[in-house]
Amino acid sequence: MNNFGGHFGGGRPHHHGTSTMRCKYCRTTLTVIPGERAIQCSNCSSVTRVRRADRIPLPVMGPMTAPFQRARGNKRAVLIGITYAAGGMRRGSGGQLRGPINDVKCMRNLLCHRFGFPSECVIMLTDDQRDPFRLPTKDNIRMAMHWLVQGCSYGDSLVFHFSGLGAQVADDDGDEVDGYDEALCPMDAFQRGPILDDEINETIVRPLVPGARLHAVVDACYSATVLDLPFLCRVARNGYWQWEDHRPPSGAWKGTSGGQAVLFSGYSDGKNNFAVMPDAVASLGAMTHSFIKAVECEPRGVTYGRLLTSMRTIMKSGGGGMGYDMQGPIGAPMQHHKVANFSGVQEPNLSSSEMFDIYRKPFVL
């Protein structure tokens, strides 16, 4: 995925309420998807923005969370891992991603064994599932995000984890400081388009009420600000840190309804090569590995600043080819595998719905 963004020139109406457009980069004819604001090209993998005037509306419907209603503890998590084995997402790369499903398994073990998340309150969406409601399609991811925050209350601890591919597309509503929206690619991104950061923010950030906490860990390219949170923390090599104000120039509100949202993501300039392991060797994503390993190594009550520093050290010391070294029940299923930087992440980032002293505030799930 090399080029992203931009508008297209005029759509051409068709029967049955559909229309077509041209990919901004390779000029392939694309079908405008009802209700979507961006389309991913199946030929070159680039993302093209659908102009407001050419969007096809959908009937207004309430959130559909029926497949996930049975478990409602105060600790809940949605974990998504996508290899894109069936969708051809990695054209020209020589294979699909080999780490995301392993990432999800290890994250689930971390949450259940170390932080006491009930297993029935942890939803896993991976593209090796037989249950159609557990496949990481765009609709299922949307339903899972609604389930995660629906009816959230004081004391809730929520986790959102995504391991897969990200995308970037030019912003069209003035709410991005850098002029680009980030997006996550579901397994059916070519058919349904990516999920833009505007929607992710509206779905799992803004509903958070006072006392509710959301932690997100995103292992994907172009994911640094994928929750659209108002503040991004910059940490220098000497430990000096400073919050950057990323509130939209348009004045749009991107915060919570009184709760707190924190995102651990990865900085990537999109120029790094993605590591793809041979078919016989499963792997673990470097970003996810650094988060889990840092949590394992650091004592309970570690500060956000110390956790971020530890993640950076783990990523820098091993790179894309480091061996998998987690111990105990958290890493037991993944022994003898390799860690691969399939997302091209160069170093971990921290963003938040509010500013705080990262070396004083403890990390608590």
From TrEMBL:
InterPro entries, sorted: Metacaspase, Pept_C14_caspase
Domain of life: Eukaryota
Annotated ranges, domain Peptidase C14 caspase: 75-352
Residue spans crossing the bilayer: none
Family of the protein in this entry: Belongs to the peptidase C14B family.
NCBIfam families for this protein: LSD1
PANTHER family tied to this protein: ICE-LIKE PROTEASE P20 DOMAIN CONTAINING PROTEIN, EXPRESSED, METACASPASE-4
Name of the protein in its database record: Peptidase C14 caspase domain-containing protein
Source organism: Urochloa decumbens
